Every structure is written in structure tokens, then in C-alpha cells.
């Protein structure tokens, strides 16, 4: 019997992770947040970007 563990999809990315995942720079990520094209939430002192919002930005669709 195999007990394979699957890694769940990320719900959100830190800015650093979003940069690495998307190949965009920090300035581009923060510019997209400021322009309203990318959603961001603050949790404690961290800025998190919902995965769905990052995928929407990268697919070229407008942020909801």
C-alpha cells in the first residue's frame, strides 16, 4: 500500500515567491499591486498575493 503525500497547491505567495514563480521583478509586482491588477493582502507584517490573482495577471485577464 502506497502512502504518497501530495503537496497542496499554494493559496498565496509572498512577494519573493511571486517573483520567482512569475519571473517578474519586485518592482513589477508592486506596480501591479498599486495599479489594481494584482490583489495583495497583509497578514501580520507580510504581503501575500493570492495564487488566483497571480495566475489571472499572468494569463492576461483583468483582475476581478
Please specify the SSE layout and strand pairing.
Blueprint: E1 12-14, H1 15-22, H2 26-34, E2 41-43, E3 46-50, H3 51-59
Molecular structure report:
- With 64 residues, the chain is of the alpha+beta class.
- It has one domain.
Quick tags:
three-stranded antiparallel beta sheet, alpha+beta, globular, 64 residues, 3 strands
Distance between the termini: 44 Å
Radius of gyration: 14 Å
* Quaternary structure state of the chains depicted: single chain
Beta strands, count: 3
Number of helices: 3
Shape: globular
Helix proportion:
40-55%
| Count of domain modules | 1
Q: H/E order of the elements?
A: EHHEEH
Average pLDDT metric? 89
Reported for the largest beta sheet, the result is:
3 strands, antiparallel
Q: Which range does the strand content fall in?
A: 15-25%
Low-confidence stretches: none
Strand arrangement, major sheet? 1-3-2
Quick summary of this structure?
With 64 residues, this protein is α+β, with helices and mostly antiparallel strands. It is built from 3 helices and 3 strands; from the N terminus they run βααββα. It has one domain (12-59).
Amino acid at each position: 500500500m502506497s502512502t504518497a503525500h501530495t503537496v497542496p497547491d499554494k493559496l498565496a505567495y509572498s512577494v519573493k515567491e511571486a517573483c520567482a514563480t512569475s519571473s517578474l521583478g519586485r518592482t513589477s509586482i508592486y506596480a501591479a499591486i498599486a495599479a489594481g491588477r494584482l490583489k495583495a493582502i497583509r497578514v501580520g507584517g507580510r504581503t501575500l498575493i493570492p495564487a488566483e490573482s497571480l495566475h489571472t495577471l499572468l494569463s492576461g485577464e483583468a483582475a476581478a
